[in-house]
Known about the structure:
Elements: E1 6-10, E2 15-20, H1 31-46, E3 52-57, H2 68-75, H3 79-97, E4 103-107, E5 110-112, H4 114-120, E6 124-128, E7 132-134, H5 148-163, E8 170-171, H6 172-178, E9 183-185, H7 190-202, H8 206-219, H9 228-239, H10 242-253
Helix pairs in contact: 1-3, 3-9, 4-5
Amino acid sequence: MSFETIRLEQDARGVATVTLARPEKHNAMNATMIAELTATAEALAADGSVRAVVLTGEGRSFCAGGDLGWMRAQAEQDRTGKMNEAKALAGMLGLWNALPKPVIGRVHGAAYGGGIGLIAICDVVIAEEDTRFALTETRLGLIPATIGPFVVRRMGEAFARQVFFTARSFDAAFLMRAGLVARICDPEGMNLAVEEEVQAVLQCAPGAVSAAKELCRALAGADPANSATLTANALADCWETQETQEGIAAFFAKEPPSWRQSS
């Protein structure tokens, strides 16, 4: 397959590496990337030769969240259009979350907004020690609705309440306490850490690995993908408020909204 925003490679062992490849945009997601990640998840799920997947980002950041152009385009759509965009993102995350192969996240630099959603669909996340994370949606008058079911399911409500609405940045140590990050490494140790996780998978029976992952998902309760309509409505409700419209307009104008107080 040919892609514009990602790369897909596979080695002789059956280890596929999916690389977010918009380094000049800090791998921010747009409609094209969401569609390509959707197609990739479908292809990987159907490919019996694939035994493990590494998800990573090119350049200085893992994923900076939503692309500004994509956000501007959403702001100009009607409610149905906004909900369709949200459901496309939720559908992509749902496919990755249900992928019948282990997904190992290699995270570095920064992961914001939707980038944390991508982390939440990984089975094992290895983060570079200086990586910064944030859910900044509320600074714009929005909420982390679409990624919310995936992130809350992985970190739990208690940890989510500490970061979902303050928009403050946090570090890999916080996400390790929350259970979203499995290992923290210095830059020189990242490749070895990823390879150790890959090797652990390759020592196990592929069918059993897939069944065990499905068992984990079943035991955890409701599939977060089933919340797509609820979260799309919640996000659309936000888009329609005067507060959000002011926040988005201020963001693109590089001006503070009236409700932001200086410290």
